[in-house]
Amino acid sequence: MMPRLMAILASLLLASASMAQLATTNGTGVTVRALDKLTGKVTDLQVVNGQSATVGRITVRANECRYPEGNAAGEAYASLTIAEIGKDAPVYQGWMIASSPALNPMDHQRYDVWVLRCTTS
Questions:
Q1: Tens of pLDDT, residues 12-70
Q2: Domain limits, the chain
Q3: What is the C-alpha separation between 40 and 63, in angstroms, rounded?
Q4: Which residues contact 29 (CB under 8 A, 6 or more apart)?
């Protein structure tokens, strides 16, 4: 009886985990907002996946952007690589979530960057 109960519980856990995953669609790029904390200047950048855009002393590369299937204006999350001119290592590399920029923020003394939305065309 116990092995059968364990098998049922395991199958229920696996089923609930697969249902919890949100179906997503890949965007063609990402719109990010950059703040120069020294000057107070805010700049919106549209970056195509696989391309880069520069603002001030940083370059933002969009690796991938995803959003909920059928809801392009919904929750966007993007894989970004951000480099500072003159530095070898990226200052940020990872996923940022539009609604929770503080969840995985870029830690830089001069610039803040956060995701606004995915682009679809």
A1: 455 444 445 678 899 999 999 999 999 999 999 999 999 999 999 999 999 999 999 88
A2: 24-119
A3: 27
A4: 46, 47, 48, 49, 51, 62, 65, 118, 119
State the alpha helices, DSSP H only, in the chain.
Answer: 2-20
The 3-state secondary structure of 37-58, one letter per residue: CCCCCEEEEEEECCCEEEECCE
- Report the distance separating Cα 95 and Cα 105, nearest Å: 9
Q: The whole model's pTM is what?
A: 0.78
**How far is Cα 66 from Cα 79, in angstroms, rounded to an integer?**
9
Query: Which residues contact residue 1 at a Cβ distance below 8 angstroms, ignoring those fewer than 6 apart?
Result: none
Residue reference for tokens 């904390």: 37
> For residue 71, what pLDDT band results from cuts at 50, 70 and 90?
confident
Q: Residue 98 has which token pair?
A: 């539009």
Residue 20: its pLDDT value, please? 53
Locus of tokens 């059968």: 4
